[in-house]
Amino acid sequence: MYLLTQARVRIRSIVAFSLVLAAPAIVMAAPVKVVVPEDATPRERFGADRLQAALTANHIEGGEQIVLGLRSLPAVEKYRQLPQLWPGATEAFVIKRIGNQIIVAGSDASGVLYGALELADRINQTHALPKEIEFIDHPALKLRGTCIGMQKPEITYEDAQYDYPYTPKDFPFFYDKAEWTRYLDMMVRQRSNTLYLWNGHPFTSLLKLPKYPEAQEMSDAQLNQNIEMMRWITAEADKRGIWLLQGFYNLHLSHAYARAHHLPYHLVNPTPEAIEYTRYVISEFIHNYPNVGLMMTLGEALSPHKGVELMTQAIIPGVKDGMKALGTTVEPPIVLRDHATDIEDVLKASKPLYGNIDTLSKWNGESLTWTNDRGKVLDRFKLLVENSNVAVSNVHLLSNLEPFRWGDPDFIRETVLNYQRIGIGGVHLYPLRYWDWPNAADKTEPLLYQPERDWIWFEAWSRYAWNPNRDPQKERAYWVQEFAQRFGTSQAGEKLLDAYTLAGPAQPRLLPRIGITEGNRQAFALGMTMPELIDAKRFGPAETLWTANAPAGERLYDYVDHEFHHQPHQGETPTAVADTVTEGAEQAYEAAKAAAPYVTKNKDEYDRIVSDMQCIWLLMQFYQAKTHAAAEVMLFGYDKDQQHLQKADSLLASSVEFFRQLTAITDKTYRNAAGMQTSQRQIPVRGGPKANHWRDILPVYEKELATFRSRLKSMNDPTALAEAQRPVERLPQVAFQLEPGSGEAFTVKAGEPIFPDGPQQIASVAGELDGMRGIRVSSKSNTPVRFILDKPAQVLVGFVRKGVNKAGPQNADAENWNIVLTNVVALKGAPALTVWAAPLSAGRNELDLGRGSYVILGFIPQETKVKARINFSAASVDGDPPNLDWMFED
Question: Contact at 8 Å (CB) between 741 and 873?
């Protein structure tokens, strides 16, 4: 391959210059040759093209030669001075000048590609070929890549979660070749080598299925367009060294197939026909897309213990069927998520059948937290490292970071260093805003493109996935220069880098102290209500999950308990962290503003950065004031000193004012706060498009403050206080007959144990329930309670979860249950019970509430209306404060 065009331009310019000087001769500049093997792969040719472009752009001449090829080729082996690469090296390369030649040798085609890109980068930086060079490099992590959600922010396809057919209406970017080229060019520039597409059941969008014509979900024309696009995308990715993986969920079916066979769209348990269908579509995928891999989520829809069956009877056989159709014995890698499945059992059963299994696990749940030492999460990764070819860390949904700009290179570098220490071999990176790809949340016209808006997020993860072992001081200089290129000067670069790194700890460090760190339940930028702060545990998943993500320290209930009992604190405390991150966010805002005199380009984006830093500071001030307010209210729950409530009143009012200021800014700058707009998001309120902006939530906090002030007034009103504390008559009862083996009947009163096999006792009972006939069951029981009712009734149940106020039904149909009383049954050594009610019919009933961490407190007539009552006098028992929701809710 020769550089001819540029050489001709140079000749003409020399001729013209020589005529002016009347020189007797013309010296012709020789082009630089880029030599590749005749049978070079698309990756090697792509690298040669990029190298050629660098030579052309920088007018490099001189008759020298650049040789590209595999280190093992005879044409490369002949250069004796060229260092050898180590056995088993992948994606590695060596660059060495030998006389008037520069040799770029790779361990494989990707190594040649990356070597060519490295040399091209050096040419672009220095505008010359290196006079001397001997450089060897290779990636730290084997798999380095990003993901794109072929999913929408809301459920649109027949009420089925994660399932979305590939159509121009839903995913216009999928059909935009220019956009794909821009994105894939970013990936190869950053040396990323994997790209994951997430979808529930993508196969009928990408395959013709002759065996199951009833499964087709779109027109032939649309399907043909999708197949053509997928083949183009995979070819473009492959020549850039990028392996495309298509993700899917089990057990999801084609909706058309499911209707034809009278099956649900998502199966909890496999059926023989669903197994056969899944095996077939996977075999067709492998056969039709030989350069594309599969990433699967075995769980969520499918029962966790059914993963072994599906993996061994459908997925692995399907892959092998596809290999047979291709005539190959080379096993394509299968990437298996550990989410919601019995991964140890799956790996144990699968490894004898298939040798090339990688695994994928969430590093961060669905929020990014300020820690890298993480108990059960760390144990899970050690298991995967030991039992799979490559254990890949999934930097999953960033619910606590969106929608603001975030990029702290030091945090990311230290995280990848931890990957190295543990043995994790890959990173799978979510964008900062997964739902609604590729659009950012900013209110701009046109909408901002995420890879450009969040450039530092993508670049930092890819840079350190390649090599995290870099000098921190040199890294600071590198990132200053990156900012300087975008905003004009090194002074601007320094201050903007400071802004990003000072703001970086805010959301990741505060969330584990006060919020929910697992699950996509929380939109952190929209704040939290007082009940959510006071009793965060009941709003999140099981304690073993969310504590795995928290660094050493205390949650708010720990902090208050230690404060009240004058005990030393352990590690970080919520109030101290809230104070610290607020101070850091203020410094970040000041650093961003200080860059203004030095910003000479991209001023619109600079203004958006300043606005984001101000928003983060206001959000931290909101949380700081409200966290302190919640602590004061919780202390009141212990000692009934109303001075705590007076302090809380002022703090709560401040938090509302900070949120009001935040709303005023975001009303002009953001379309919404969270990409996901489904009911899965429940904090601060149930999600949806009408509860996804700060202006939607501000009235919630204003009402909360008004209710709190009304309660304070009532607590000091003798009439209201007397009404609240007057004796209450017991509720009317419905008689029942308990069937054998269903626990034991008892009288609800002080001193009675709530379990027949445990010491926990009732400390006190309010008048509504005192003397009722209830049913207690073993705390270890997992069988239904059977009884006969004389007439239609409401069953009254208190659920017991250690340390959790207002615990509710776990396995029951939640829609049928409502809270009817709070703070009316105090327990020794546990929070006061919240009483839930659900309707039951007359006659024989079977109540299945899962494992027996509950007590049935009685049955009342179905038509009985329980009068709401504020129990001002409820006191803490054995260190557990009573439920305090009544102070903030109607």
Answer: no
Please give, one letter per residue, the 3-state secondary structure of 525-562: HHCCCHHHHHCHHHHCCCHHHHHHHCCCECCHHHHHHH
Strand, helix or coil for residue 179: helix
**Sites in the chain below the pLDDT cut of 50:** 1-28, 542-549, 802-806, 811-812, 874-879
* Residue 230 near residue 289 (C-beta atoms within 8 A): yes
What is residue 63's predicted lDDT score, i.e. its pLDDT?
Answer: 86
* pLDDT at residue 9, rounded to an integer: 28
> Strand pairing partners for 794?
839, 860
Tokens of 349: 């059963």
Report the chain's C-alpha Rg in angstroms.
32
What stretches of 143-249 adopt beta strand conformation (E)?
143-149, 194-198, 243-249
Cα–Cα separations (whole angstroms), residue 110 to 105, 157, 766: 10, 39, 73
| Per-residue confidence (pLDDT) for residue 814, from 0 to 100 | 55
pLDDT confidence of residue 807: 54
Contact (CB, 8 A) for 403 and 670: yes
| CA dist., res. 458 & res. 461, Å (int) | 6
Angle of helix 643-669 relative to helix 603-639, nearest 10 degrees? 160
Pairing of strands 854-861, 793-799: antiparallel
Closest CA to 761 of 775, 770, 746, 750: 750
**Please, where are the H alpha helices in 765-809?**
none
As given in the structure block, the two tokens for residue 203 are 């196969």
Encode 304-346 in three state secondary structure: HHHHHHHHHHHHHHHHHHHHHHHCCCCCCCEEEECCCCCHHHH
Burial class (CB in 10 A: 0-12, 13-18, 19+), 659: buried
Q: Which residue has the tokens 């400390």?
A: 763
Residue type, 835: V
Determine the pLDDT at residue 551: 65
Asked if 199 contacts 254 with a C-beta cutoff of 8 angstroms, the reply is no
pLDDT for residue 300: 86
CB crowding 277-308: b at 16 or more within 10 Å, else e: bbbbbbbbbbbbbeebbbbbbbbbbbbbebbb
Cα–Cα distance, 361 to 343 (Å, whole number): 10
Q: What pLDDT, in 10s, does the model give residues 202-253?
A: 999 999 999 999 999 999 999 999 999 999 999 999 999 999 999 999 999 9
Q: In what helix (H) or strand (E) does residue 652 lie, and over which residues does it extend?
A: helix 643-669
pLDDT of 441 reads 98
Nearest alpha carbon to residue 469 among 417, 536, 521: 417
Q: For position 677, what pLDDT does the model report?
A: 85
